[in-house]
Amino acid sequence: MTQHTSLFAYPRQDFVAGIVVFLVAVPLCLGIALASGVPAVSGLVAGAVGGLVVPWISRSALSVSGPAAGLTAIVLLQVGALGGLPPFLLAVLLAGGMQIALGMLRAGRLSGLVPSAVVKGMLASIGIVIVMKQIPVAFGSSGELSALFRGDVHAGSALIAALSLVVLYGWKKTPLARFQLLSPALVVVVMTSALGAAFAGLPALALSAAEFVDVPLGGFAALIDVLPRPELGAIVRSDVWIAAGTIAVVASIETLLSIQAVDRLDPLRRHSPPDRELVAQGVGNVASGFLGGLPITAVIVRSGANVAAGGRERLSAIVHGLLLVGAVAFAGSLLNRIPLAALAAVLIQVGLNLCKPALFRQQLALGINQLLPFAVTIAAVLATDLLKGVIIGIVVGIFFVLRQNAKDAVSSSRREDGARVLRFERDATFITKPQLLAMLDEVEDGERVVIDGTGEYMDQDVKESLALFTEDAAHRRIQVELVGIDLRGAPAGGGH
């Protein structure tokens, strides 16, 4: 039985870990809001809700919730499709309600039904979308990738993005990597903020106001005034409900995958109840949507930082949430000095980690049964949207599972006395019928056939096929011996 310690059992470790997670979360909250095409404050609000609401309900000791890179493609698409942020925020609120219902219906364990190749394809496609959307931002362009070929490039932004990527990918080789309170993303934010200020005196490199973060100034009062609100009247719109279902499904899958990964990192080997986690995330999304924030999930990047920093309980997530609130209310002027190109570089690294070449090589090595659902999911997501792509991937994955289960389900051999032996090698279901019927068609008139189903389950479809064969065998002088098979109650031809 899983034991859960008190929220305040490890105050010293969790306070330090909470600071580390906060420093990791700030650039990610801002960057994900940027990638999603919404105000920066919506990302920070979602991060704060993930820290201040979810931990009180969740029993996942080390996971940290907030806006997730995996949802950026959905947010970007749905905000445009629904006609703005207010109806989308209602969809986030409704998605939270759906997650609460899923948790109460104990649907958390159903995530295991999604083939791993489809999940990997979903994450890889998200990574590809993130990289494609952030490359123009890294070059200071306001358009798509094609704008770069028309010369829409800002030298200052491009230089900041390039230096940021150098720091992010070279961080582990520097002496600074030994300090827990420093994260490469934080160093990038501080360094590029200074560069942005220095470039102001250089006309060729100076950044415009639109190339910096824009967080409202003036404390809590100003923040409350500018926070977007959900458009409650849009509840009658079917497209809002479809968007809510998409968010609920993808956010739930990402959350359940994240807590599984974090549980494996937990030094105390605790288990996070998946159904309770869905309820916690649902309450968090209701709150985030109501307050103007992005949808949230349990996030592996922040959770991993929590584990690495020595976090032990949910208090670390609460500390990180309190610090995010403080940053939004009292450090807006500092946040507004961060160049968007630096955040784009952080997100490009996140995206590349999701679709790294090693993942493609791994799927290729696993063979066609894993490679094709993986590839189809990526192609379908890029061609349609995330939910449709995942559904298509699941259908393809199920097809290959059924195909693999049907393959070699029945073996055929000859005994020394010349009898043909058909042996069921695994449970016989309707998917076994094509192979079984093909083998029965090979039996010639006058042969002796032994059909052995010892120890294997056999459904009604297969029994009726065998009953039909044994009935016809009498007219073809075929001797049939059934071993371990009871055809009582199985009329030939299904009783028609």
Task: Outline the structure in words.
The structure is a single chain. Helices cover 61% and strands 6% of the residues. The chain has a four-stranded mixed beta sheet with strand order 3-4-5-6, with helices on one face. Strands 1-2 form a two-stranded antiparallel ribbon. It is elongated and about 100 Å long. Strand 4 (420-424), helix 20 (433-441) and strand 5 (448-452) form a beta-alpha-beta unit. The protein has two domains: 11-396, no CATH class; 410-495, Transcription Regulator spoIIAA (2-Layer Sandwich), CATH 3.30.750. The chain is mainly alpha-helical and 496 residues long.
Instruction: Specify the biggest β-sheet.
Output: 4 strands, mixed
Q: What global shape is seen?
A: elongated
Elements, N to C (H/E)? HHHEHHHHHHHHHEHHHHHHHEEHEHE
- Unreliable runs, pLDDT <50, ≥5 residues? none
Strand order of the largest sheet: 3-4-5-6
Q: Short description, anyone?
A:
The protein has 496 residues and is mainly α. It contains 21 helices and 6 strands.
Characteristic terms for this protein:
496 residues; mainly alpha; Transcription Regulator spoIIAA; four-stranded mixed beta sheet; 6 strands
